[in-house]
């Protein structure tokens, strides 16, 4: 039986990536640069795909949505951390904390599902090229993107409703740079078993299941590519998948470590390092990963930049 005089905290203290003041200037400069690159890179990808009608295909439609989600995922966490460092105020109110947590899970789930959707798109393009246009119809593409938005909203809202029932009556110091679920659950002085069970269920649904789907898709893709008679054809097919595989390794390598590994191997340092990877590093690198080896996208970006220069001159 819980004591009746328990009162929940009205704010949390985000301890950040480092508690040493001498590190804060370096962290501020580093993450400000990363955030600016993330914003510019992802918005350029979206604009290039929107302006170039040649890129109005399912693959680029999914990529534009991934860039939009990456932009919002980084924006949800990095600016608040930069403000905290600049103002030397590490507090965040309870409602703001829940709001940040909601959008973190919302866009994190979207990221995971969209990466799996892009793997399915590559599977259809390589394994069933003659049926690609009919299979990846505009209606199916809209469903493959719209469905995850609704699904992410429901899952994230459930997380927040379960979190709102908890009481935080002890320490309010969160050993993180944003309001993540796992560190907050450790601070609760009420039973969190329902929350922990839901975390495992959701992790299986939005991390493990898409990851297995991606592995299955690429297993079929590799088998199909190996049947291509010419070495040039095999190289071209592999090159269309290499960018996506890099993103898969970056994103799932870190999220699986945080949400599916046993809690006994978790430390605050490991959690923060993994979180930096999928909330800041991956959204920053994705535009480079997808554009550096993609001639069509590089051409669209050049046309967009030249058009803006000519317009301003």
From TrEMBL:
Keyword S-adenosyl-L-methionine: no
G-protein coupled receptors family 1 profile domain segment(s): 41-290
Cross-referenced PANTHER family: OLFACTORY RECEPTOR
Gene source species: Nannospalax galili
InterPro entries from the UniProt entry: GPCR_Rhodpsn, GPCR_Rhodpsn_7TM, Olfact_rcpt
Protein name: Olfactory receptor
Domain of life: Eukaryota
Pfam family, any one: 7tm_4
CDD domains hit by this protein: 7tmA_OR1_7-like
Compartments in which it is found: Cell membrane
Transmembrane segments: 26-49, 61-82, 102-120, 140-168, 197-225, 237-260
